[in-house]
Proteasome inhibitor PI31 subunit (Oryzias latipes), 271 residues
Amino acid sequence: MAGLEVLYTCVTGSLTCPQDALVCFVHWEMIKGGYRCIGSGDEPRSGDRKSELLPADWSSNKELYSLRYEGADAKMLLKAVPVDSAVIFNLMNCSTQQVTDLTVNMKDHVDADHLDTFDRSVVFINGDGLSEKVRAQLLPPQEKKAGRRSLREDEDEAGGRRRREEDDPLRIPSRRPGPGTQREPAVPPFATGGADLDPFGSRGGGGMIVDPLRSGFPRSGFDPSSGIPDILPPGAVPPGARFDPFGPIGRHRPGPDPDHMPPPGYDDMFM
C-alpha cells in the first residue's frame, strides 16, 4: 500500500482517536481510485486545490468529517459519522446525487493503542480486508471507456459467434442460404399435378403409381412368368409384366390345425 505511510506520517499530529485513522485510510483509498481532495466542508472555497494530502482542518470536527474530492468526470462528497463503536461513511456523487455507504467497526480494523507511530500491520487490523470493503461498497465502480474496435476484432467476434451457433445441438438451421451454399433447383410454377400426367415417373420425377417390379424395393423369389401350378400355365404372364396375384400361390399349403382353438374344458374326459 505505497503512499499510506507518507500520508499517515504527515497527519500523525492530528490523529487522536480511532475514527481519525479510519478517515485517513478511506481518504487514501479515494486517492488510489483516481480522486484528489479539494478541501473540507460541504461548500467549495476560493483556496481549494487538488491534492493527495488531507486539508489542514480535516479532523477539526470529531463528530462529522466532511471532505470533497474531484475525479476525471465527477465531484464527490465524503462524510464520516462516528456512531458508538463504528463509523458510517457516505459518499455522494454531486452531479447525480447517488450515494453509497459503508459501516466499519473500529475495533475490528484499528488498534487505538498504536496511533502515534505508523506500522500498517499494527495500526490497521486486516488492512487488506478493509481496503476490499472500501472499494466494493463505497467507491463507485470504474467504468470502462469504450474504445474504437478494429475490423479484425469485429471479424473474430462474428466468427466465434457463428462457430457457437453451428455447434449448438438445439439450433434450428436457417432456411436462408448462406454465402457459398448451392441453391436447390427451382420448381417450375406450373409443375403442380405432374405426377398425375406421368404416373410411372418415366421423366425422372416421382410417379403416383408404385410398380413393385421397378420400384427398387426387394422382390420375393416368386416370378409370375413361370406360371402358377393349377392356376396359370408357364408363359401366361409376360416376363416383367405387372401382375397382382388373384389367389393363394399353391393349393397344397398346410391348413390350420384342427385343434388350433379347442373349446374350453376340451380335455375333460366326460365331454
The two ends are 110 Å apart (CA to CA). The first strand starts at residue 36 and ends at 40. The helical segments are 4-10, 18-32, 106-109, 120-123, 127-138, 151-167, 194-197.
